[in-house]
Amino acid sequence: QVQLVESGGGLVQPGGSLRLSCAASGSIFSINAMGWYRQAPGKERELVATITSGGNTNYADSVKGRFTISRDNAKNTVYLQMNSLKPEDTAVYYCNGDVYSNYALSSTLYWGQGTQVTVSS
Questions:
Q1: What is the pLDDT of residues 46-60, one digit of tens each?
Q2: 53 contacts 35 by C-beta, under 8 angstroms
């Protein structure tokens, strides 16, 4: 019914940039907060950034000043612009959204399938 699909991952050199996109589709009435998480090899999944429907943002300390989260509510899409990438940014990146579907009485958290980001020389 509701799906989130990430795109834009790939291999980049240290210091490079990459933009991730996550598009939600299906029976969507509205989306509250959306966010990006990542899981590096051998580590737990961690929050990268979140953004509310009104545009308020929150970032992990490790990415502040380098990453920017944004959204296009008309397209039900959230973006993550990643600059000055470091090898420690290497991870699978997942997006999520707190979605009100049509006819639903409450919201449901949906997750994308993930996209691989590798930062290496």
A1: 999 999 999 999 999
A2: no
CA-CA distance, 48 to 53, in Å (whole number)? 17
Stretch among 61-65, 74-78, 99-103 having the lowest mean pLDDT: 99-103
Q: Report the alpha-carbon angle 89-22-91, nearest 5.
A: 20
Radius of gyration of the chain (CA): 14
What does the alpha-carbon distance between residue 6 and residue 97 come to, in Å, rounded to a whole number? Answer: 12
The answer to whether 32 and 107 have CB atoms below 8 angstroms apart is: yes
- Looking at residue 39, what DSSP letter applies? E
Report the relative pairing of strands 10-12 and 115-119 from DSSP bridges: parallel
Tally of residues, the chain: 121
Query: CA dihedral defined by 33, 96, 68, 79, rounded to 10 degrees?
Result: -110
